[in-house]
Design goal:
The protein has about 270 residues and is α/β, with parallel strands linked by helices. It is about 40% helix and about 15% strand. Helix 2 crosses helix 9, helix 4 runs parallel beside helix 5 and helix 6 runs parallel beside helix 7. The longest helix has 20 residues. The protein starts with a helix and ends in a 10-residue tail after the last helix.
Length: about 270
């Protein structure tokens, strides 16, 4: 089987995950995505992530962020549901436990959660993200972790290790730091193998290794994405990718729950 035939077979499988338009569905069935991030410094990242999920086709998108970030994000679009639950270390009106419990109340409404865009590295924000991940795992909720969420994983790999419903999306620098933490010797001349090794070190967590070409691995298989894209590299592209991945994860969950059958897809 040629590489082109393999690629077309993969695309055919992906097409099966795209929900068909149907008058029989109700609002929210085709994807409810939540992005946890957004701080004093960063309001664009959670917006790009959540709004790209909507642009691809998710029905609903939520953002959990700091109150100051909520004002800005709400001004960008009326399409997002913004919850100003997060707090920094210098905020004293809420404890981390209260914040985590508030976010946990949203979990039954969600299909997938993105952790990290615009989160910042504030200790209180990271502690809340850590607790939110634990609550999401209790619900077996799919997770996409990027940006400062990866900084959290780098320092506490145990919170995601062995959770197969998680996808990590590191760039070049983040990937090398994760390899160092997981005691993997990064080798440029063998980088095509690194994604698989890192996934295995995390006991089956899926790795999307971003770079000149992307490598995706669940520890058993490695898929190389070498289609040429735009050559400009600017802030926000990775955030957009997390929203797209999250939507496909939401669709995957709905498909496996038999919301539609593949025979419905042309």
């Amino acid at each position: 089987m040629t590489q082109t035939m393999v690629t077309m077979a993969v695309i055919d499988k992906i097409r099966q995950l795209i929900p068909p338009l149907s008058s029989g569905y109700h609002k929210g069935q085709a994807g409810r995505v939540c992005v946890v991030g957004g701080s004093d410094e960063y309001t664009g990242a959670p917006y790009f992530s959540s709004f790209s999920a909507l642009k691809l086709g998710a029905d609903m998108a939520f953002v959990v962020c700091q109150p100051t970030a909520a004002v800005a994000i709400k001004s960008y679009t009326p399409d997002l549901m913004v919850h100003p639950y997060l707090r920094r270390s210098d905020d004293t009106d809420k404890t981390s436990e209260e914040i985590i419990n508030n976010v946990a109340k949203l979990l039954p409404r969600l299909h997938v959660m993105v952790i990290g865009p615009g989160l910042s590295r504030d200790n209180m924000m990271l502690e809340c993200a850590k607790g939110i991940i634990a609550k999401a795992k209790e619900k077996d909720l799919p997770l996409v972790i990027d940006a400062d969420g990866l900084y959290l994983i780098q320092n506490h790999p145990e919170i995601i290790k062995g959770y197969p419903n998680a996808i990590l999306t590191p760039n070049v620098a983040e990937f090398k730091r994760l390899c160092e933490e997981m005691k993997i010797n990064f080798e440029d001349n063998h980088k095509d193998k690194m994604a698989g090794l890192l996934s295995q070190a995390f006991d089956g967590v899926t790795i999307v290794q971003k770079g000149q070409y992307d490598l995706i691995s669940n520890g058993n298989e490695v898929f190389k994405v070498d289609n040429e894209g735009g050559l400009k590299r600017c802030g926000g592209q990775g955030d957009i990718l997390t929203g797209l991945i999250a939507t496909f994860m939401a669709w995957g969950s709905a498909y496996h729950n038999k919301l539609w059958q593949s025979s419905n897809v042309g």
